[in-house]
Amino acid sequence: MPAPDVRALLQALGQGGDRREAAIARLTILGSRVVPQLVATFESPADRDRQIAVLRVLEAIADERGLPVARAAVASGGDVALAAVAVLRELLTKPTRGADVQALDLLLDVARDSRSDRRLRAAAREALENAPEDVRAAVRTLGTPEDPVEALWQDALAGHLPDDARQLREAVSARAADTPLADLRRLIEAIAERERAQTKESASHDWTAARGAVHQALALRGSRVALYDLRETFERASGPLPSPFLAAVTIVGDDSCVEPLAAAFAHADAEPRWRHLLAQAFHEIVKRERLTKRHSTLRRALAKAPGLEQ
Known about the structure:
Largest sheet: none
Number of strands: 0
Distance between the termini: 67 Å
Order of helices and strands: HHHHHHHHHHHHHHHHHH
Structural class: mainly alpha
Helix content: 55-70%
Oligomer: single chain
Shape: elongated
């Protein structure tokens, strides 16, 4: 394949959806001849999604020249490190230039390192199932491998969020019901911080949705420990929010939420469906809290959004 075409494929690794997947497939077919370009792409200033895509290609090619990239990726942590573990797993069977021994040493270091994320240690131990029997026996002394979802969840509660918010959202559904309320409140704050740091709109939306899922989990348990964040979210909303936010505020919202809902309603002129849902939540809270126009909170809310008055 001509060099310009390879460059185009490497560029496509930084894009999402089908274009990225097609580029990964085509680069994999090209095989070892594109390893130098893959290494250079990983080492150049790039976002983590592109680095993960590079590692996926290197995993499929299983060329020993990918070892330094995998080593650097492990040190970077998060989902990039997880993708690197998959590369190392494939290199366990590649004796060229001692790649198998180096990959084995790296995986053992990760599996034993108590400072690493729990899900990274779990992935390394799983990868070592491809190692010789004596190594597998030694790894078993570290204990039973941890469930990946549980490992991700415990990492997140400790402040080590994954790169992909969608993974966390799945873990919320599986684990939030049995998690202490204070831990969920801290998780909301950590997610909000990651959300603010995003430069891509799609990634920001994914983190917003994950935060909404935690709010809904709290609401289903009748907790208002993070109601302040729910109020602020509606106050700042310039467009529709993921549905879990509305579910949460409808379930546990109190009189302090009617003004934020009114503010969101007032900013939603171009979104009739969103306005309708906001109005439903607003009136549900007004009814539950038994608010009348004698209450200053309701008067202020209706002043902001007269369209909410029935």
